[in-house]
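Morning run. Coffee first, then this:
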Amino acid sequence: MKLRTSRTISGLLAVAIMAGGALAAVEPAQAYTGTPPWVSGDANNHGGIKIYDVAGGEITGGTDYNALGSFYAGQGTAKRGCATKANLYIAVPDHNVSIPLNWYNGNLQGSTLLSTAPAAPTALGPVIGKTTWGGPTPVADLLSGGTLDTSSAAYTNVFELRMYDSGLAGCSQGQNYWAAEIEYNPGGSTYDGLAPGAWRIVYPVATTTQSTVSTPVPSATGTYVAGQQITLTSQSSVAGQIQFTQDGSSVGNPVTVDGSFNATSDPITLTAGDHTFAASFSPTDATNYTGSTSSNLLISVNGAPTTVSKPTASGASPRAYGNTIKLTSTATAGIPGTIRFKDKGALISGVPAVAVNGSGVAASALFQPSVGSHSYTAVFTPTDYTNYSQSTSAALAYTVVKGTLVNKVRPSITGVLKVGKVLTANPGTWSPTGTTYTYVWKRGATIIGRAKTYKATTKDKGKVLTVTVTAAKANYNSKAVTSLGKKIS
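And here it is:
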């Protein structure tokens, strides 16, 4: 089995593994300086937002601005007594729009009940818990809808994370929000000390510095077998103690870092199966530094060989987007366990592991694959880790093409059919819903307009007008349908 690490948000101080295997600290990125010029005049901003990790520690930056939804967001001021829900928005700063309330913005997290989870109670106001802030690239998708301002360093590669609250009767969302200004690197090369994809909060300025701790490095790599002993080494950014964990449970006692900020765990005897290792850091100076938790180290440990077949899909490839499929695979008969299906080695969202039946067969939950090429595999994990190892199937190549929009009710023209009157294009009814529409008005074969409405002129008198509606939707092929003609009198 292979060793792999999962991507989570770390701090602003990175660590690198040198060729000789030792850990060395990398200098933190150059900080954004100054107060954003719009903050002092923003009458709708009632305070800041803080972001928290799963342990309740404040997060001030990370490696992937699209992964913000893995964490918690909370207001930095006391909440309104009536508030029970909150929304998150992304707003794009624009120096041409003097009132920040009127900036382009998009909804990142719909109305969500405020979290009572114990992981982030240190926020003074409402907290949106670790839920579903968006899809694989929610922030990038929302930013792409606005015009990004590059007029100055204060506006370049900066977006505003806003929280609106609402709740009981009479407690409407209104126009008040809480916000944090976030600088990010959209990719390509280093920007203002940020690696591609990285982000940091530039305002409000954090009251404490976020410490960092590196992903644990095992003393041995390669293929792991049950009964093998390893140790883990991790490095912090400041003095303190590191608590190593395996599958969420502590490994021994906390270890004080040495003069190079390194710490090594007690020996760990591996058992067969998949295991998650992490390092949790507690700084000695808790006044000026917050604690941190590393990203995960995932290790698969072998037992006796098993087999699992290449998945089969319930729908033939290529498959049109919008349709669901399920995957089925067969493991070694008579060995209890579960099958988890993956796409290009990554877990499929909403598709949990499934127990095999007596014949070793398991079928996944129904899911809707995205447009593009897929490579589905099945991973069999036996219940008896001691005697049996995991196995991974051959890959099933699968393709999903764009879906087809269906016009159920033809577009039509409404209004008084006389010169000087305004006519309106009714786009008709389409499936699926949520499409966007464009319009082309014609007098015979001559194009006379491209808006939703058209005012008939003297040239139209006695002529037949039509409107062609083109429907478009992400992951679907656009489609055009023309209305019946209407004669102008």
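The chain has a mean pLDDT of 82. Good start to the day.
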